[in-house]
Write a structure and sequence with these properties.
It contains twelve helices and nine strands. By secondary structure, it is α/β, with parallel strands linked by helices. It has one domain: Alpha-Beta Complex (Inosine-uridine Nucleoside N-ribohydrolase, Chain A). A nine-stranded mixed sheet has the order 3-2-1-4-5-6-9-7-8, sandwiched between helices. Strand 1, helix 1 and strand 2 form a beta-alpha-beta unit. The radius of gyration is 18 Å and the shape is globular. The two termini are 12 Å apart.
C-alpha cells in the first residue's frame, strides 16, 4: 500500500536496475519514503525487460502494482540495435546479474506495451510537476528530448547520477552512452548531478551490511540476495555497496546534505578523454553539481530508511 504524507514530491525513476546494487537500493529508498510519490519506472540499457521485471518484483512486495513499469531503450542512441562493445569500456549482452531476484513473468503484471519513452512523455504532458530521476545511462531521456521536446520542456529539472568532476576519468552512466549524455546535458533543462565521487564517499560499512543480511523481512531477503549475486558477478570489485543512486533520490529528500556548485557541464569526445565530463563554474548556469556531501548523516539515514522496509 502506498504511504502518504502531505504534498509528497512526484518523481519518475529511470534506471538500469539489476547489475550493481545501488539501483535496487534507490528504488527501495523511494518505497520507504512517504515524502516521495513514485509516478512510474522506466528501464534502460541492455536487457530492459529483465530490468523491468526486477523493478516489478520489488514494487509487488510493497503492494505498489499501481506504479507502471515500462521497458525502455536497450540500445545506444547512435549505435546498433543492441549493446555491443563501446570504446574503452563495457559490454552488455548478458543477462542482468540480479535477474534471479525477479519473479517469473507469469507471477508479475504484464509489462505495458507502451515504450518507456512514450509513457514518460505522455506522463509529463499531464503531470509536469514530476521530476525525472535518472540513475542509469541517459538513452531514454535523450530519446525523449529528440522525440517530444515539448514534454521534456515541461519539467523543472532532471536529477542525474552521472559524471565525475574532480578526477580525469569516465563515469559508467555517461560512458555507456556518451551521445545521449551530451544530448541531455546540452538540452537546456536544468540538471542536478550526483557525481561518481559522492557515491564513492557514501559506502556502506560491514556492520551496516550485516544489518541487512540479518533482516527477516521479505525486502531484506530480496536485497540480501541482490548483494550476493552482485558480488558473484563482480568478484574482483569491492564488496561493500556504495550508495551512488540512492544519493540521487536523497536530493529530493534532503538537498541540504549536499554542497552545490552551479555552472555548466559538458561531455568530451576527444580520444584521450572520451566520455569524461567537465564542469565550468557559471553563476547562471543550468547545472548544479553536488560537490560535497554530509557523508555520515546521509549514509546512516538512507540506510536506516532502506532497512525499515
Amino acid at each position: 500500500m502506498k504511504k502518504t504524507t502531505s504534498n509528497p514530491t512526484p518523481l519518475w525513476l529511470d534506471t538500469d536496475i539489476g547489475d550493481d546494487t545501488d539501483d535496487i537500493f534507490a528504488l527501495a529508498l523511494i518505497l520507504a519514503s512517504p515524502e516521495l510519490d513514485l509516478q512510474g519506472v522506466s528501464t534502460v540499457f541492455g536487457e530492459t525487460e529483465q530490468r523491468a521485471r526486477l523493478a516489478q518484483t520489488l514494487l509487488q512486495l510493497h503492494n505498489r502494482t499501481d506504479v507502471p513499469v515500462h521497458a525502455g531503450c536497450g540500445h545506444l542512441l547512435l549505435g546498433p540495435g543492441r549493446m555491443e562493445v563501446m570504446p574503452n569500456g563495457p559490454m552488455s549482452r548478458e543477462p542482468i546479474a540480479q535477474g534471479p531476484c525477479a519473479k517469473p513473468a507469469g507471477r508479475l503484471p504484464a509489462l505495458p506495451p507502451v515504450h518507456a519513452v512514450d509513457a514518460l512523455a505522455a506522463h509529463l504532458h499531464t503531470h509536469p510537476q514530476t521530476t525525472p530521476v535518472a540513475i542509469g545511462p541517459l538513452t531514454n531521456l535523450a530519446t525523449l528530448l529528440l522525440q517530444d521536446p515539448a514534454a521534456a520542456a515541461k519539467v523543472s529539472r532532471f536529477v542525474v547520477m552521472g559524471g565525475e568532476f574532480k578526477r580525469a576519468m569516465w563515469e559508467w552512466n555517461i560512458h555507456c552512452d556518451p551521445s545521449s549524455a551530451a544530448c541531455v546535458i546540452a538540452s537546456g533543462v536544468p540538471i542536478d548531478f550526483i557525481p561518481w565521487d559522492i557515491g564513492m564517499t557514501c559506502t556502506i560499512s560491514p556492520a551496516q551490511l550485516d544489518r541487512l543480511f540479518n533482516s527477516s523481512s521479505a525486502t531484506g531477503r530480496l536485497l540480501t540476495r541482490a548483494v550476493k549475486l552482485w558480488r558473484k558477478a563482480k568478484p574482483t570489485l569491492h564488496h561493500l555497496p556504495r550508495l551512488f543512486d540512492p544519493m540521487a533520490v536523497a536530493v529530493l529528500l534532503h538537498p541540504e546534505w549536499f554542497e552545490w556548485r552551479r555552472g555548466r557541464v559538458t561531455v568530451s569526445f576527444a580520444p584521450a578523454t572520451f566520455a569524461h565530463t567537465q564542469f565550468t563554474p557559471e553563476a547562471k548556469g543550468p547545472h548544479r553539481v553536488a560537490w560535497e556531501v554530509k557523508k555520515t548523516a546521509a549514509v546512516r539515514k538512507v540506510w536506516s530508511r532502506i532497512l525499515s522496509l
